[in-house]
Amino acid sequence: MQTGALISLALYFILMLAIGFYAWRKSTDSSEGYLLGGRNLHPAVAALSAGASDMSGWLLLGLPGALYAAGLVEVWIGIGLFVGALVNWIVVAPRLREQTESYGNALTIPEFLANRFPDKALALRVTSAIIIVLFFAVYTAAGLVGGGKLFETSFAGLFGDTGMSDYMTGIWLTAGVVLAYTMVGGFLAVSLTDFVQGCIMVVALVLMPLVVLTSDGGFGAATAQLNAIDPDFLSLTAGLSFIGFLSAITWGLGYFGQPHIIVRFMAIRSVPQVATARNIGMSWMGVALLGAIGVGITGRAYVEMNGLTLEDPETIFILLANTLFHPLITGFLLAALLAAIMSTISSQLLVSSSSLTEDFYRLFLRKNASERETVNVGRLFVALVALVAIYIARDPDSKVLGLVSNAWAGFGAAFGPLILLSLTWKRMTGAGAVSGLVVGAGVVILWIAMGWNKAFLGGPGVYEIIPGFVAAMAAIVGVSLAGKPAEDISNA
After folding, report:
1. What is the pLDDT of residues 386-398, one digit of tens each?
2. Closest CA to 464 of 416, 399, 398, 400
3. CB-hemisphere CA count at 13 Å for 389?
4. Which of 93, 174, 372, 392 has its CA 20 to 30 A from that of 212?
């Protein structure tokens, strides 16, 4: 069983490394090539890269686990994300592709903000870089937790007495492969591997629920079993408070501020091709979300009907893969899980590295650094951020969904209002931009520290992105209106 699965995983790892080598030969001779793929991504690659880097292990671990444990009511998170992603493609994508080029051909989000508001350039670059590295360390750790859980659940004891747990062995293997192709091939490697990983993920997510249903009496039998567990298990509203609904649906607000997603918009070949990428990306996302929902719901029915035990709901995908399929197919399904994890980790490492390189190293240490030196320093920062994330992920009791929700809220509140208004509101000022960054991130951190995301004023918790997003929006508008309008210095 383990040998067949390992063969499939080994082939998957070899494919990822081969893509990294190809990208190294094609696009790593300059900063623009290493960090943005030369702004020459095909719409399909950009679309699936944005989707795969977005969904991460959350799609195959976190969301199915939440549905397995609580029922269909958890689907509101997916609905909120789908709507948010669609608005992001319509409002942010074409404007960001155009304006990042017209404002000094910016290669990173902090650089774009600095060019857009030159009077606060230094403060924006430094503040945004700090926020990116801080929250991406947590976000990357969430992906590594998924890799650790995969190896702990599927390959327990296989690696013998190495001095490390199976969980930590999984983390180091996952991080090692990601580091190899990301450090070598840069943005193009990350985007091309994301495309392949996105294809693998959607096939696995469609395949698994169908196999589960056909193995145990079909849809009717599964529905009857779930209703026997809890008559409200398949209800969209049972036990759902207004605060709970709001906290779920507002996950969609986070899309506007996720650097590892919106950087794909900057790399599409041209503005007219954004619409094509949007249609491909949203179709992929819709199918992938339906598949993830199916895994969680049908997985619960399968476990109950067969008298199985599942200690961690977030491992339902892994349990089904190990139980229902031939070892070689199991390896493919586990590769899909690794694809979800690795696609996000690589994107996050590269964005963190680009911020540290462009907004710290070249800004303060080596303003005249050569292109080759800059690329090599970027590779070094990729490794450093990965090590920090490995340290954060070392606790095997960490929850993927919890870590992702915290980081998602941090980016959504800090950058979401800032990106939206900087692209659409000419009256916005540099002082307003800085205030939005600080207030958004600060409110999210405070909210988490006070535990108000779990319980608030004697009632249910309020997802931290809500107060953070509202406070940041208010800060930007208020400070901007109180100051002098910024001068438009774009080349448009």
Report:
1. 888 888 888 777 6
2. 416
3. 38
4. 174
Name the nearest CA neighbour of 101 among 256, 260, 274, 257.
274
- Whether 363 and 377 have beta carbons less than 8 Å apart is answered as no
From start to end of 76-216, where are the E strands?
none
Q: What is the pTM of this model?
A: 0.83
Helix H or strand E encompassing 67: helix 63-70
Please write the tens of the pLDDT for every residue from 437-456.
999 999 999 999 998 888 87
Are residues 210 and 359 in contact, defined by beta-carbon separation less than 8 angstroms? no
Six token digits for residue 139 = 């976000």
**Residue among 228, 204, 455, 221 nearest 317 (CA):** 204
Nearest alpha-carbon partner for 383 in 176, 212, 218: 176
Cα dihedral sign, 307-310-314-317: negative
Cβ(4)–Cβ(330) under 8 Å?
A: yes
Output b/e per residue, 255-281; b: 16+ Cβ within 10 A: bbbbbbbbbbbbbbbeeebbebbbebb
> Which residue, 128, 175, 120, is CA-closest to 151?
175
Please give the Cα distance from 23 to 35 (Å, whole number).
12
Class of the domain covering 2-400: mainly alpha
